[in-house]
Amino acid sequence: MFSKGLGNLGNLGGLMKQALEMKGRMEEMKEQLASETLEASSGGGMVRVTLNGKFEILSLKIDPEIIDKNDAEALETLVRAAINEGVRAVQDRVHAKMAELTGGLDIPGLG
Predict the structure, then answer these.
(1) Which residues contact 81 (CB under 8 A, 6 or more apart)?
(2) Which three-class secondary structure state does DSSP give residue 65?
């Protein structure tokens, strides 16, 4: 009677093992993403930004031809656009890697 009352307790050990394995694979994925770089640009390539998978900006290149001290707003707009595009590219890459890890299952809070 006692063992019958435990029901699926035996499955709990298996679930814990799977959770630990998933955690390990996620840590590996984070390390891999941190070493990947993605580049984005704006203004026809006049402003280029390179980010890693941890959303860190590794480089920002601005073509000197677009630097106009009388129009800082235009340069600010191009820099912002390039960074935002880079962030979107990293987000897309993270979501793709998560889909690989979870077999396409969308698990809230993981992506």
Answers:
(1) 42, 43, 47
(2) helix
CA distances from 62 to 41, 58, 89 (A): 10, 14, 19
Residue ranges in the chain assigned as alpha helix (H) = 2-6, 9-35, 72-102
Residue 12 corresponds to which tokens in the numbers above? 């709990």
| DSSP code for 60 | E
Residue reference for tokens 């630990």: 20
Q: What's the pLDDT score for residue 9?
A: 64
pLDDT band at 79 (very low <50, low <70, confident <90, very high): very high
d(CA 46, CA 53): 23
pLDDT band of residue 1 (cuts 50, 70, 90) is very low
Specify the amino acid at residue 106: D
Cα Rg, the chain, nearest whole Å: 22
Q: Coil, strand, or helix at residue 38? A: strand
38: which 2 tokens? 């993605």
